[in-house]
Amino acid sequence: MAKKVAVIGAGVSGLISLKCCVDEGLEPTCFERTEDIGGLWRFKENVEDGRASIYQSVITNTSKEMSCFSDFPMPEDFPNFLHNSKLMKYFRIFAENFDLLKYIQFQTIVLSVKKCPDFPSSGQWKVVTQSHGKEQSAIFDAVMVCSGHHIIPHIPLKSFPGIEKFKGQYFHSRQYKHPDGFEGKRILVIGTGNSASDIAVELSKKAAQVFISTRHGAWVLSRISEDGYPWDQVFHTRFKSMLRNILPRTVVKWMMQEQMNKWFNHENYGLEPQNKYLMKEPVLNDDLPSRLLYGAIKVKSRVKELTETSAIFEDETVEEDIDVIVFATGYTFSFPFLEESLVKVENNMISLYKYIFPPHLEKSTLACIGLIQPLGSIFPTVELQARWVTRVFKGLCSLPSEDTMLADIIERTKKKIDLFGESLSQTLQTNYVDYLDELALEIGAKPSFGFLLLTDPQLAVKLYFGPCNSYQYRLVGPGKWEGARDAIFTQKQRILKPLKTRTLKPSSSSPVSSLLTILGLFAVVVAFLFQLQWF
Ligand code: FAD
Ligand code: NAP
C-alpha cells in the first residue's frame, strides 16, 4: 500500500513536494491554510496572518532559466526576471500540467503534528487540521513541512532607543504594499537586504528624501551580467564553483571583491560591507546605485537613537523631520504546529541534517523543505530536497546514524559562519552548486563528468562552464527526463526569446566561436584531471 504523506503548505516547496510524492508513488495530501497556491508569491492588498506578505512590485532576483523546475522549463516568451503575477502563472501551469490541485485541501490549517500516540516509534504522525472551524485528525506515514520562513517579522525595536518617542509612522517591510501615500515624505529605511533596497528605490520616486541605514553594508549586484545575460547564469557555473573551492581563500576573497566592485565602487557609495570577505547574500538591485547618484537615496550608518522627529546615527550625524521608518530587518521563523523537541529554533538557528531532517527521530519520516537560503534560486534547491526526501520516505535512500548527522550539522554550521557570518539574515545561507550536487549525489542524479567527457563532450563543456541549471539533475538516475539534454542546449533561445521583439537581420557567426569551443573542451579535460588529483 502506498505510504501516506502530509504536505504542509502549497507554496513553491509544497507544490514540488506534491509532485515528487506522486513521482515516487506516495499518496500525498497537502494542507494549505489559504484559498490558493503560490505561498508568498501570491500578492494581496492586505496582510494576512500566518502567510508571507509581499509588495506589489516584487520581481524575482533569480532568473527564469535558473528558477524553473527541472523537467518543466518556463514558457519561452516569459521574461527573464518575473513579476510575482507572472511567476504565479508558472505555478498554475505547473500544477495543472502535473494535476496537483486534486491533492490540496485549501483553507485548512495544520494545528499540530505529533508522533502517533498509539505507536510513538512507528514513525507515523497524527496531524490535526482545522477547516471552516471544524477540527479533524488523520494518521500519516510521513510529513513534509513546507510552511515557509518569511512570515514572522523581525522588528528589533530594542536596538532603537527612543522609538517609543518617535511621533511619525513606523512599520515592518512586510506591511509595505506600494508607494501611494508616501508622496513628499522623508523616509528612513532600516536594513540593506533585498527588501530594504527595493522599497527604498520605489519610495524614492515619490518621497521628498529617502535614507537607508545600514549597520554592516552590502554588496549590490545588477540582475544584468556579462553580455547582458542574467547574473545567475554567469555566476553559478560549476567551473567558478570549483575555483571558489580549490583556490586559496585569500585569492577567492580578492576575486570576489574585484567582481563585486566591477559595476561601481562600493566604498565610494558608502555601501562597502564591513566584512567584505563574507559571501553574504548580495542585494540584487539595478536602480539603487543610480538613485544614490541622483541623491534621491542617501546611505547612513546604524541608528544610535531616535527622537520625536529625528534620527541620530552612529557617526553622530542627524537627520531631522523623519516622517516614516520602514524596518526592512528580515524575518524569524517558528513551527507552531510542531512540538519544540522535534524542530527547535534558537536565534533563527536550527539543527537539521542537511537543512532537512531532524537527526534524532527513530524513523526519518519528518522533513523540512525550503528552510534554506541558497546563494542561487530556491526553486531547484527545494526540488532536489523533495526528490531526496521522498526517496528516503520510500526506503530507497537511507540516512546515516544520529551521531554522524549531528557531527555533520556542527561541521556545516562552523563552515557557514566562516563563509557567511553570523547575522540573523544569514542563518539559513548555503552555497549553491555544492549543495545541489550534494543532494543530487544522494539520489544518484549527479551527472558524471568523466563519463560525459568520453561519451558526450559537448554536453560536458556545457555542464562545466555553462550555468548550473536544474535540467542537469535530470540527465541520469531516478527521474531521468528525456528532454533534459535538449533543455540545456536550448536555454539560450529561451533567454533571448522575450527580448526578440524587434526583427533584426541575422549576423553571421564568427570562426572564433568554434575555436573557443575547442579551447573549452581542452580546459574541461584539464580541470577534470586536476580535480582527480584532489580527491
Ligand atoms: P511560502 O511561499 O511562504 O509558502 C508557505 C505556504 O504554507 C503558504 O502558502 C502558507 O499559507 C502555508 N502555511 C503556513 N503554515 C501553514 C499551516 N500551519 N497550515 C497550512 N498551511 C500553512 N527565492 C528565490 O529563489 N528567488 C527569488 O527571486 C526570491 N525572491 C523573494 C522575494 C521575497 C520578497 C521574499 C520574502 C523571498 C524571496 N525568495 C526568493 C525566497 C522565498 O523563500 C522563495 O521564493 C519561496 O517562495 C519560498 O516558498 P515556500 O513554499 O517555502 O514558502
Ligand atoms: P534580510 O535579507 O534578512 O535583510 C535584513 C536586513 O536588516 C539586513 O540588512 C540586516 O543587516 C538588517 N538588520 C537586521 N537586524 C537589524 C538591526 N537590529 N539593526 C539594523 N539592521 C538590522 O531580509 P529581507 O531583505 O526582507 O529579505 C528576506 C529574503 O527575501 C532574502 O532571501 C531576500 O533575498 C529575499 N527577497 C527577495 C526580493 C526579490 O527577489 N526582489 C525582494 C525582497 C526580499 P545585517 O546584514 O547587518 O544583519
TrEMBL record:
EC number(s) reported in the record: 1.-.-.-
Example GO biological process: NADP+ metabolic process
An example Gene Ontology molecular-function term: N,N-dimethylaniline monooxygenase activity
Keyword terms: Endoplasmic reticulum, FAD, Flavoprotein, Isopeptide bond, Magnesium, Membrane, Microsome, Monooxygenase, NADP, Oxidoreductase, Transmembrane, Transmembrane helix, Ubl conjugation
Annotated SUPFAM superfamilies: FAD/NAD(P)-binding domain
Membrane topology (UniProt): Single-pass membrane protein
Residue ranges crossing the lipid bilayer per the database entry: 512-532
Cofactor requirement: FAD; Mg(2+)
Keyword presence, Transmembrane: yes
Compartment(s): Endoplasmic reticulum membrane; Microsome membrane
Keyword Chloroplast: no
Chief location: endoplasmic reticulum
Listed GO CC annotations: endoplasmic reticulum membrane
A Pfam family reported for this protein in Swiss-Prot or TrEMBL: FMO-like
InterPro entries named in the record: FAD/NAD-bd_sf, Flavin_mOase, Flavin_mOase-like, Flavin_mOase_2, FMO-like
Taxonomic superkingdom: Eukaryota
Family: Belongs to the FMO family.
Protein name: Flavin-containing monooxygenase
Lineage: Eukaryota, Metazoa, Chordata, Craniata, Vertebrata
Gene name for this UniProt entry: FMO2
